[in-house]
Amino acid sequence: MTPEEMIAKGRLLLDQHGLQDWRLSIETIEDRPDLPLGVCDSDNRVIRIDARVGREFRQAVLHEIAHALRGGPDHDPEWIKIAKRIGCTSNHLMPYEVQFE
Ligand SMILES: [Zn+2]
User: Fold this and answer.
1) CA of 64 relative to ligand 1 center, distance in Å
2) Would the pTM count as exceeding 0.70?
3) For the chain, what are the domain ranges?
4) Distances (CA, A) of 62 to 52, 77, 90, 101
């Protein structure tokens, strides 16, 4: 997927979840070696997605949209609930769910 295709697809997802006033940025995220897929920048209303995300693109965008809707960086039960509702897969959510079991 080219960055342009990622922007177009991500834009649809953002709009679908009421984030019309947010922007999607495809970039190389260097400062998060443990979690390089995306960042939700609530202050600037920007969802940053790493250009190397590959086939995880959709899940990465939905993950950050859930942060935008939740209003914070935590992976708490409320975030998990929102993430599930908007379409994050159980595979994707498993690492976050285990801490509440
Ligand atoms: Zn997260």
Assistant:
1) 6
2) yes
3) 3-100
4) 16, 16, 13, 23
Fold for domain 3-100?
A: Zincin-like (3.30.2010)
Ligand 1 centre distance from Cα of residue 5 (Å): 23
> 67, 46 in Cβ contact below 8 A?
no
Q: Are 52 and 37 in contact (CB under 8 A)?
A: no
pLDDT digits (tens, 9 = 90+) for 36-90: 589 999 999 999 999 989 999 999 999 999 999 999 999 999 999 999 999 999 9
- Placement of tokens 């709009």 in the chain: 15
Give 74 Cα–ligand 1 centroid separation in angstroms. Answer: 7
- Helices 77-86/90-97 angle, 10° precision: 180
Tokens matching residue 89: 């897969």
* Nearest-angstrom CA–CA distance, 96 and 101: 10
